[in-house]
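hi support,

uploading two proteins for the ticket. first:
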Amino acid sequence: MSQKSFNVHGMHCAGCANSVEKALRSVDGVSRADVNIATGKATVYSDTPEPSVQIMKRAVSNAGFELEEPDVQKITFAIEGMHCAGCTTAVEKAMKSVDGVTNASVNLTTEKAYAEFTGEPPVNKLIERVREAGYEISVAGVNKTDKLEQQREREKKKLDNAGKKMIWSWVVTAPLMLWMFLEMVLGIHLTNNLVMELAMVGGAGFVIFGPGFETITSAWKSARNLTPNMDVLIALGTVASFITGLMSLAFILGFISSPFYSFAGIAAMIMAFHLTGRYVETKARGRASEAITKLLTLEAKTANIIVNGKESEISTDELKKGDTVIIRPGEKIPSDGTVADGKSTVDESMVTGESMPVLRKKGEKVIGGTISTEGTIYVTVTEVGEDTFLNQVIKLVEEAQGSKIPVQEFADRVTAVFVPVILVLATLTFFTWWLLPDLLSPLLVWADYFLPWIVTDLEPLSQAFFVALAVLVIACPCALGLATPTALMVGSGLGAENGILIRRGEAIQRLNDVTTFVFDKTGTLTKGEPEVTDWISFDDDDDDDENSQSLKKIASSVENLSEHPISRAITKYAEKERDLHVDDFQSYTGMGVKGEVNGKVILIGNAELLKTFSVEIPDEVQKHAGELLSAGKTTIFIVVDNLVKAVAGITDTVKEQTHEMIRQIKQLGYKTVILTGDQQKVAARIAGELGIDEVLAEVKPGEKAKAIERLQNNGEIVAMVGDGVNDAPALSQSDVGIALGTGTDIAIESGSVILIDGNPEGVVKAVRLSKATFKKIRQNLFWAFFYNLVMLPVAMAGWMHPVLAEAAMAMSSVNVVGNSRRLRNKSLH
């Protein structure tokens, strides 16, 4: 299944998002569509063949919105070696052959080439293809703002547009409000009724069909497609109020005989408050999405590259794998790479959340965007463009922010029927007040003592309209629609700043429900670097003479072909003696390895491996093996031609932060389990040292997922913490998979939560992040529901002025976004 993201313009509320989803799902080939009102993005999932983008655009346009692909951008290149039109054709052909390039043109006179593309610029591939065609090429200039500028420009444009509408609406509405106040409250008559009504109708018409025209058109399109959104309520209320002004004006001019109370001035105020709410909400939403903007600022713009011993400054877009760059103290590392020479402490706090700089020396990996604080280092570039760690982080955060979590599905179901329900309630309210005025008027008389905006002298029809108007504009599905995505947006951004990546949004909710934490041992709770502490030989020929083929040399040579931590420990133990040729090497998952050296069959592994090959363990060997096991050490047997020649004792030390992490997890009330393929006594020793509740040992990697499933069948909601490689099936089976990643090895597909630096304390941070984020979601949903449950009956009772109702409605959305933003101040330590 493939997926593609689009920008969606014109959405204002959860009803809009539902309309866009419905339109996209109607297109052939679209299997699922997720639309996020907070980010303004739509993610379309499809099977083959992929749906037509043009058809999707048309479907969304028919629903009243605009679907936009990623911006088409340009890069300008300088070309050398062209002599004729044939050269330009060759260069154009080479550039157009690169995936992602939508168009290319070459100017022979200026020796410039222009490439248009969507998404990330394929600069390196373009350069490679043109050079293969026989021409020299370099980036002459980039005719696009970088991703950060694009992000800021989009937010600024959106905010400026909302601001202009708000200002123009109040330029007209404020004088009307003052005029109404002087006339109705102070009894000061500036003009006759005709002039005043003309001014009210003219002013309201300007506000509704000028700054508010987008709201009116949005309402019409959504109603036409039978997916009414919040704009329908506002449009109905303001247009109906505007019509009462026209009716009143018609009475004054003598065109109709029945008097009509005018609500035209109120219509202008409702729209002005609505546009003000939109502006404040847009501003708040922009601030809520600061996480992505902050991540984008980390990217370095230039790099100092070393070519033939000479240093030159280039754009980071021009970097290629294998390039060597020099980074001096205080400079940003331009891209992911490996230290080729020198050493320096590097500030990685912006991507791992750890405040202390870490020492990076020759052979160690560094992350693009981090800062070298002292010492000069030479770095060989290993990743560029979209493959860099920082770009992967940005992608994961964007995907998490655009995803939906289970609790949002309930809110979506409510918002899908919200507007139709409000329309029904408003209609019932209108007819009830119109037909039963005597029964309901005591409500107004009673409230008139303490609510200054209560009107008691209106005709039944006008009073019914006044109350129904308040019902229309008091309802707020926007707050319901924003409750979850804004909190998820801020929470995922806060996590990224603290070295916690949420790959799937639902992990936030599931982690909040977890009852049991299951931990892999090696590399998760422990350092993952076991060492040989004991070597007990039962072979008189085993010595350290360099000229003899000692048992250690044989064992080291065989184990050198395996990547298992135990194998690496044995190889490291006898590193200088590893030079023998090994035939027929085989690895047995969870048991050990087998190989042939000089015609001898070598087995190195645990007791289960020996059992598989029917190797008997002598009493003396069993005695020593038991002593090693009692000491909590992994016991490995070295067998030559079915005879046990030695036993190695291997142990792995617990990470410094593990003790505190387990203590805090248990303090929070979670059950803890250790799940490992290691021997029972070894696992029991680690569990005893850490205070872990349950031990599941000697479990093969393929059986770990079944162990998780058994816990789930017993009613546990399980979070599995592992290294994301051997534990992949278990991480996928668990309710929440927490993968420990390190640096550029971030692309771990099996975990729904990734701890960037592999620090176990990140588990506690992830729990706190989940609880804090979900607390905000619950608060937002509570206040959104509470607001509507309380305010609707108040409006139906006639106790709410329509203008105050609209102001309260707008502020409810702003309150939800503001409450989510407060999550940014939460400490995860």
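and the second one:
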Amino acid sequence: MTFSIIKSANNTYLKLLHGCILLIFIPLSVFADSGQLPNTDMTMLPTVVVEATKPLPESGITTLNSDDIKNLPNKNGTLTDYLKVVPGVQFSEQADTSYQAGEIEPANVSISGGRGYENNFLIDGISNSSTLDPYALKFDDTHILAGNPQDIYLSPSLIKSLTILDHNISARYGNFSGGAIEAETIDPASKPSGEISYRTTRDNWTKFYTHPDEEEDFQNADRTTRQPHFDKHNASFHLSGPINNSQGLLFAYALNYSRIPLTPFNVKEIQTRRSENYYLKHVSELSTDTTLKTSFTYAPYRAKGFLNSTMNSNFTNVSDTYALQSMLETYNKNGTFELKAAIKKNSDKREAPDHFYNWKSTYGETKDWGRLIGSSSSNEGGFGELIRTEQSINLQGHFSSNPIVSHLLETQLKSGIEYEHIQAKYNRPNTVYSYGTAKVLGAGDFCNQGDQACVSEEQYLSKRIVYPAGSSSERVNFFSGYLELHEKFYRFTIRPGLRIDYDDLMKNINPAPRLLISLDIFGDDKSTLTFGANRYYGQDLLAAKLRGAIQPTESSTRPDQLTEWSDPIKLSYTTVTKFNTLETPYSDELTFGFRQVLFSSLFTLDYIYRQNEDQLAKETNPDLNPSGDHEITLNNNGYSEYKSYRLGWKKQWGRNSLTINAAYEKVTSSNESYYDTLDDGDLEDYVYHDGELKLKTDLPREDYSRPWTANLIYVTDLPYGFSFTNTTRYQSRYRVIAKTNEPKFDTDGDLNTKDDQYFVYDEVSQQSALTFDWKISWTKALVNNHSIELNLDIFNVFNRKIPIGTEDNTYRLGRQYWAGLTYKF
């Protein structure tokens, strides 16, 4: 009943948005033709033709320009590090943990209450978001490769500007239900120039916070989840300049590298992470009105590691992304045309030992390393090679008209179409065996030649799990189109728009109306009210189809070391992944805003409400399919609700700028990702929380959910070539929702019958966090326009000890120093 009401409400909401668009289009077109305002006696003035339209107030848009990117502290040399200063953006509690300070992958972010994989990352207008398995976090899974929401880990050294869109987002943008993040890359310089940069940090420049009971275990870490020692290095280089009067060329290289020493079985092993960008860009002025930009990016990523408590388990996760992009932009009397084309290939691969062995550490001296860690087992090997590829072709066309003035109405039309073809593959090239159930061999008991699951006169493994080889591929076509008007009428600026998406995987036609209205209250461009009503559709995941390649696991046995293995039989209660068509997840949004220019500063106030429906979750069919397997599928049972109140103030004077923003956010969510199980029965589970009986799916979100966040960013240029940036970030108490061991009885009989038993969920609060991050730079000009710059970034300047997350005794990093040098020529 609840879901039918919600669905009905959403259909009504969609019809209401369409009605709003029609009510705006029709009257304004009438007024434009008649030249009269409704119910007014104003004398009409002669038409004045203007050459440019006043842009709509940038509600929901935060843009970081090249100076911002240069001045803001950046810890790990990733794009998402800059999002910490943006209101409405939250990071996972585990994003800055003391236990894994050596990692360099971009952190997941939640924008306006969305999940970490529900954002659309773009590079020069082309999507950089993964459609495969962006929330696969485990690096040691048997069947699944680790993923990330971004294909290319773009280096900040290549970013000219960064635009974050978190509400009131234009119809030009789609495939998200969180936010959109667009990076514009740097262009070739107008004269020969270059830059070399290097930054570094290490564990002895870092303060770790751990619980005293875990300090010894941490310092002698033998697993990836504990990283007491590391060193990190960011390096970049670019060289650019003109080829002739109309062409320019840029070549750039960037490296982000981490080295993590660990001591498994008291032997030093080095894990590494290596992310690189090779970037080539050509810009040609074909005429005074036409520009052609073409770029090529090669972005490899390598992560070398080993399985916890497992000998000879070294593996490498490899990710290679190639992207060729081209954009033709031309101007004429009608407006601006953009044509974009891109070819991208992403290949993820795990290189690992083919088989896994679970020996007994007490059956001899050959396989006895488990004793070093107090275990009766000695694990060895890995889970074999996995390959996942994604190839795409993207074509776009966009048109933005010049302003059209008709009496009191000024109109600008924006429209575009997009087509994308994606071909994805999943492949396990070899059958993998996991051996176990060791049995002892006595003196004179020998193994067959070549039997790797046997040690003569010690032990043999009598059972094995079989992971059969398998592959699958899928092709999908995405089609999108949008139409948007920017209309200025009297003191109103109105942006109605409609975006329609379709793909032949889920076969859903998704109309997403967008509407933004602003009122210049006094007609002086200083006081503006805004209202927005929008729908955003998320992106389908090809992982839902590709996982069908994962074959049911089997087992076989042998009675002794000399007997052949029995024919494989299917394991009891085997689960298989099946594909089913789903609705596309979407988010309905209502916003209200106010902007005030006062004393050369800008004050903003916003309210954002989102209702997210048809979110992805996992379910297991309790009935066996004809093959005798349990089926795992994705469903649309997930949903969430988001409310946010935001304040902002910004002022710039002389060589100083000050930005202050604060946000209050409340999120309830049924699940955190499509990996969470949410069967139909889960939607009716009641629990006690905060003294009330409520649906379990209405509990507050467990991550990305600090209610209050606030930022203060102060930037100043000082004498003698110095500059200073302070970013102060406040996060309120984090409430951990935890299930207790004490059930509660519904003695009042509020539900069903009396004495119904429900689980109790309590909130455990972590303390609030106030951190200061500083960046201090010194620049010295040299001869012939050369210069040198020294940088010092200090994070958590006052070394605050901040508990985080849902686990006890987990803290953020303390104070950390990064030192850098840049030479420009």
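thanks. also noticed: The two ends are 68 Å apart (CA to CA).
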